[in-house]
Amino acid sequence: MFLLDDTRFILSSGLRDIFLCNPQKESLMRKITLIFFALFLICFFGDPVLGVEPVTGIKANGLDGSITITGDKSLSITVELDPGDFENMVADWWIAAYTLWGEWVYCVYPGHWEIAGSGLTGISPVYQGPLFNFPPFAVLDISGLPSGVYPFYFAIDTSMNGALESPIYYDSVTVNVKNAATYSIHGLNFSPYIDANEDPDEGGSQITDGELKQRLGTVVGYTKWVRTFGCNDDLKDVGLLAHAMGMKTAMAAWLGSNPTDNERQMACLIDQAKKGYADLAIIGSEVLLRGDLTVNELIEHIDRFKREVPEVPVSYVDVYGIVLSHPDIINAIDVVMVNYYPYWEGIGLDHAVVAIHAWHQQILSAAKGKPVMVSETGWPSCGERIGDAVPSEENAAFYFLNFVSWARAAQVGYFYFETFDEAWKTRNEGPQGACWGIWDGFGNLKSGMETVFDGETMEDNWTEGSIPGGPGDPAIEFTYVPPYGDKSHNLEGQVWHVHPVDYKVAVYICVSGQWWNKPTFAEPLTTIKIDGSWVCDITTGGIDETATKIAAFLLPNGYDPPLISGEASLPVELNQKSVAKTETARTP
After folding, report:
1. What's the rounded Cα separation, in Å, for the pair 398 and 396?
2. Which of 116-120, 236-240, 575-579 has the lowest mean pLDDT?
3. Would you tell me the crossing angle of helices 259-274 and 295-308 to the nearest 10 degrees?
């Protein structure tokens, strides 16, 4: 704790609270005071001295320039000096801070901060003596700062007369302290390419250090973790910066079909992980979905990382269907991560989290006790309708709240997709590609998203709805059968008392006494929607509209139905493998 009298507070190892009172100042007055303080230093700048000049350094949590944290996070201010050609030259040393309660200066002996007069009048140097090289030295370790802007300065002048006189060599760092949200979500997928001319596919360095800090600073207090999609020039420092701002990082190597690029990504991730900036390593994202690498090639990259950085847990990210069909990948990783996108599957908003709940049960079973996290999920605030999935700002906010409510109730870790709107994604995803952000491209929180950060939740609407009709014997029925000769309408049906994600429907029609798969040989199975309904096109060729019999079988996932092309009867195995069936007849 600090010990205070009227003018000073004393540092100790248990430092936690820098100010015991909190008088409020008008924002304008604070800004004016800060401007005059900066001008006060600048006015003492002299012309550069010939030779290698001293370099002062002051950092906050290891970062220079600026940093954003929440008040509950720790803050460490360190100073360092490289005297250059001025080593052993005597000088005045100064360390100062502007706070909500005025200006303060640091004194080396006995290691305390003193309040200064307005404009730093009547202050004494931190130290007077020869310049020498020293590594980072902590002058402040604290937590619990109220929200506000805190600039810190470290300066030297070579006059050594106890007064700030030219030439002055100084450095500064600004700490932006913000209030944390009432509820911080588990994690965010973070990508900084928000300006119209920024596109990671173009390569090279496009994001400045200042822009990266600012964009990461936007999410400070809203999330505990951030996840990257790669380890290129723009993203390699995310772990360093996020840690300094009080967040954990899931850092990734973006793997594709180019071995040279893959090696660069892997080397970068391994380097950052060895430095301690990756709390979780992700080796590839949807690599198998795209077909960029074989399973064995992917596992080689995973095993390499585990050999080189065994202390950091490893994962791989893909859509749930790919994860389920590759147990070798599950065996190779420490944490199972899966992407759930009801929107892309055309599932309506009312059933979207119901679908996630059902899919997640399958993943948990396949993971066999390994930790499971949702690596991506989200809903666009604009774009095109896909099936029953309608993008809008209102729907995006509803989905965000509904999903986070499910994740909190089920105690599931997750990375929500995504932090900001990114215009470059329209090239591959259509108009909705630019609309996935919780914040827009200008860093503004979208309407309705604040409800999650305010701590609100929704009641369970995902458990009961996961089995249409509730528990019971599996059943299937036709809800609409096009009349004989109709080529304009599809066959519609409904299943009951099963998890729709665990089953498919096989449809056959009989034309002139011969049976055929529908809709096609290439697609002999029909997907069931999360509400149990299904639709099948039964007029995809020939004279299908003259079919006199139609049969449908409810089949468990993993079974491939027989392909039938003109047989007089259906195979017996369909009756054996199906859990329910239905059949109807039509007449001319």
Report:
1. 5
2. 116-120
3. 30
Q: What pLDDT score does 108 carry?
A: 77
31 CB neighbour count, 10 Å cutoff: 11
What three-state secondary structure class fits 382?
Answer: coil
For residue 315 the two structure tokens come to: 């994962």
pLDDT given at position 165: 85
Average pLDDT over residues 194-201: 91
Q: Which domains does the chain have, with CATH numbers?
A: 3-178 (2.60.40.3880), 185-466 (3.20.20.80), 475-585 (2.60.40)
DSSP 407-463: HHHHT-EE-BS-SB--GGGHHHH-GGGG---SB-TTSPBPTTTHHHHTT------SS
Q: What percent of the chain has pLDDT over 90?
A: 76
Consecutive H or E run containing 282: strand 280-285
d(Cα 196, Cα 422) in Å, to the nearest integer?
8
Residues 6+ positions from 436 with CB-CB distance below 8 Å:
378, 379, 380, 381, 417, 418, 421, 422, 425
Distances (CA, A) of 361 to 188, 334, 342, 354: 23, 18, 15, 11
Residue 287, Cβ density class (10 Å: 0-12 exposed, 13-18 middle, ≥19 buried): buried
Provide the 10 A C-beta neighbour count for residue 250: 28
Query: Distance between CA atoms of 554 and 465, rounded to whole angstroms?
Result: 19
Pick 115 or 544 by higher pLDDT.
544
